[in-house]
Amino acid sequence: MRVSTVWFLIFVLFTFPVLSSSHWWFMSQVYALGAKIMCNNIAGLVTYQRQLCRENPDVMVSIGKGAKLGVEECQQQFKDQRWNCSTVARDVSVFGKVMRKASRESAFVYAISSAGVVHEVTKACSRGELIGCTCDTKRKGRSHKGFEWGGCSDNIGYGLRFAKLFVDSREQERDARAKMNLHNNFVGRRAVKKHTELDCKCHGVSGSCQVKTCWKVMSQFGVVGAFLRERYHSGVQVTVDQSGNELVKIMADGSPAHPPRDNLVFLEESPDYCVPNTNTGSLGTTGRVCNKSTPGHGSCGILCCGRGFDTIQVEEVYKCSCKFNWCCYVKCHTCRRTVDKHVCKSPDDNVYNGNGPHLTASVANAQSNSQNRPAKKLLGDKRNKRRKERKNRKRGASSLSTNSLSRGDRENKKL
Ligand SMILES: *[C@@H]1O[C@H](CO)[C@@H](O)[C@H](O)[C@H]1NC(C)=O
Ligand SMILES: *[C@@H]1O[C@H](CO)[C@@H](O)[C@H](O)[C@H]1NC(C)=O
């Protein structure tokens, strides 16, 4: 893993201020000089984190990887949602202002990041990469289910403890937001603990499984991600009680109650993610690819917030006519096909004002799908386009990947 990547990820986790590029260079030099200097020079660590860093420099890499795992899983889980777990690219803090708001989304980000740290630290431990931790060998002998405990069970206890020490020590205040973060960190850690399974191996004559040895492993991180996403949906809005010491959920009759331990909690309503808003960090959904044939998540109706969508054609490269060669490899050809993509319109205009010149060019040609566009204009567009197309064909300069046809044109071609 590249040094700069590690530091980037640590910064990502804690929304540090943007560093200048010379500072980046400086940081990677510092890394080479040893843990003490290194830990003293990571911007934004709190004192206790610096101490943990000096005492356990080997674990720091896993913390960085854990933060990255959390971010990637978050983007995977929310890829078809209005909020897709990303803000302006190259912003050092990936989540930017979303994290500053005490919203449901921030709650998820804290939970999945802390789960990611548990997961990666535990994995590093099982691989024997950490000085202070070994496999969990507490389980020995025969289990009541008839198999032998063996091998190396994931030592989740160590991962849980370290993640709690390191991640939770960020929260130095005692205010409502700190309590919210701590609660969600806890939910994230517990989600990893909840999702462990048995991995087994059979021994005996030709795999007869006369003897079975098993050990505990964590589930794939995607399982944890899916679980936490459910928790996100069932998240509970809370407030602090009158003493200011505890988060409480206000019941329908106005009485306070403890929020459920395994639910994510948040203090503020989410902003509107349909439109860009620099104050809340919402990017809006203009230009997002949506699914026309589903009524559920990622549907054009929901994702485009009722603004309608444009249909563009893009060329896709994929593997085809694969053949198995004796022995033992598979050889494939590369094929191309043209697929329809639907992208959300901008709120301002019927014409998409994309950010890349390439996308803009292709979408400008695309057929509009909003109902309120005058039919006459569409016809005019088509005629113009056909003329243009003929020109292009003559020039022989038509490349599918950059040239997008409206549905109308394609249908004409079929005829
Ligand atoms: C998330 O949405 C933004 C804004 O619409 C977009 O620019 C970005 O590519 C999306 N990210 C992912 C991972 O889909
Ligand atoms: C769109 O949704 C349908 C139905 O859920 C699904 O079968 C299809 O694979 C989705 N298409 C894309 C491009 O994701």
Secondary structure elements and their pairing?
Elements: H1 3-14, H2 21-32, H3 35-41, H4 47-55, H5 57-77, H6 96-100, H7 104-126, E1 148-149, H8 156-168, H9 176-194, E2 196-203, E3 211-218, H10 221-233, E4 236-237, E5 239-240, E6 247-250, E7 256-257, E8 265-266, E9 276-277, E10 282-283, E11 289-290, H11 300-303, E12 309-325, E13 329-344, H12 357-364, E14 367-368, H13 375-395, H14 407-414
Parallel strand pairs: 1-3, 4-8
Antiparallel strand pairs: 2-3, 5-6, 6-7, 9-10, 11-13, 12-13, 12-14
Helix pairs in contact: 1-5, 2-3, 3-4, 4-5, 5-7, 5-10, 7-8, 7-9, 7-10, 8-9, 9-10
Question: Can you tell me about this structure?
Answer:
It is a single chain. It contains 14 helices and 14 strands. The N terminus and C terminus are likely disordered. With 415 residues, it is an alpha+beta fold. It starts with a helix and ends with a helix. 33% of the residues are buried. It has a 4-stranded antiparallel sheet with strand order 11-13-12-14, with helices on one face. A 3-stranded mixed sheet has the order 1-3-2. Strands 5-6-7 form a 3-stranded antiparallel sheet. Strand 5 and strand 6 form a beta hairpin. Bound molecules: 2-acetamido-2-deoxy-beta-D-glucopyranose (2 copies).
